[in-house]
Design a protein that fits this description.
cell membrane; membrane; nitrate assimilation; elongated; S-adenosyl-L-methionine-dependent methyltransferases; High-affinity nitrate transporter; nitrate transmembrane transporter activity; 7-stranded mixed β-sheet; alpha+beta
Length: about 200
């Protein structure tokens, strides 16, 4: 009887574990089977909303044939480098990909092909100031990540580039501000001139 109870308890524990772990993908479990390169050079500064990044990706052919048999989609992402994650919990790297905040910006998603693919991406205007790299994930038919590749080394110290955020001011706004200021000055001058003229007219009467 005790043995039966122990077996039942074990099954319940395994069942709970299966429910909590089902669908969970850990970055550490993925093979780095993709070769990914990007046009920015180490330390290069790109301007948000202006500069472009050319990304290339392909299967690393040193892996055995059939390695990519489950690959259906490639998703390329812009990722924070460690220097831009310090004391920023909302950018934290977590092994559980469903909780990972390293790669928050989508560059492109394409059907998988083993041959070399390329995409030119304009750096989005709303990207924050920071240091970045590029990573690509391969997804299976269930949209679960099964492999990856990235432009930097495992410690994320090489081939990093910087993005300079937009300050929030635009030329059109500056021109409008200048015109409004000039109009205000002229209006004020006109008001004083009119008041002075009226006062002079009153004195003459």
């Amino acid at each position: 009887m005790a043995g039966h109870g122990l077996l039942l308890a074990s099954l319940l524990i395994l069942s709970c574990f299966a429910e909590t772990s089902f669908g969970t993908v850990y970055f550490s479990s993925l093979q780095r089977t993709l070769i990914v390169t990007a046009s920015p050079k180490q330390g290069q500064v790109l301007k948000a909303g202006e500069d472009k990044i050319t990304v290339n990706w392909a299967l690393n052919t040193t892996f055995p044939a059939g390695t990519d048999s489950a690959y259906k989609t490639i998703k390329v992402k812009l990722c924070y480098a460690p220097a831009s994650q310090v004391e920023r919990g909302w950018r934290k790297t977590v092994d559980d990909l469903s909780k990972d905040k390293t790669c928050q910006f989508n560059i492109v998603a394409r059907p998988y092909s083993a041959s070399n693919k390329s995409f030119e991406w304009t750096v989005e205007r709303d990207l924050p100031l920071g240091t970045y790299f590029v990573r690509a994930y391969a997804y299976n038919s269930e949209d679960a990540a099964v492999a990856f590749g990235q432009t930097t080394d495992p410690h994320k110290t090489t081939n990093l580039f910087n993005i300079e955020a937009i300050s929030g001011r635009h030329l059109s706004l500056d021109v409008t501000s200048i015109c409004f200021s000039a109009f205000s000055v002229l209006s004020l001058f006109g008001f004083f001139w009119y008041e002075k003229r009226e006062a002079k007219s009153s004195q003459q009467k």
